[in-house]
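Slide 14.
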Amino acid sequence: MKTDTDYTGMWVTRDGYIRHHLLPGGRYDEARGNRQSAYQGNYTITGNHIDYVDDTGFTADGDFRDGILYHAGMILYREGKS
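Slide 15: predicted structure.
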């Protein structure tokens, strides 16, 4: 079974425009283009599923499959992994 720490680190879209930094302790920091910290909040991982709650209360979710994060129509790859 995977733990939260198995997924911590930087996740990026193929074009690098969106970057999710999953921090230890359940916080995340999302950058979009040149806009650093566009969204920040908490995340919870259950199995291969991730739930996000940003600091404004907006919620979203995603799933990890075969080392790829599928989130809200986006595909994010772990930085430094192929």
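Speaker note: Helices lie at 4-7.
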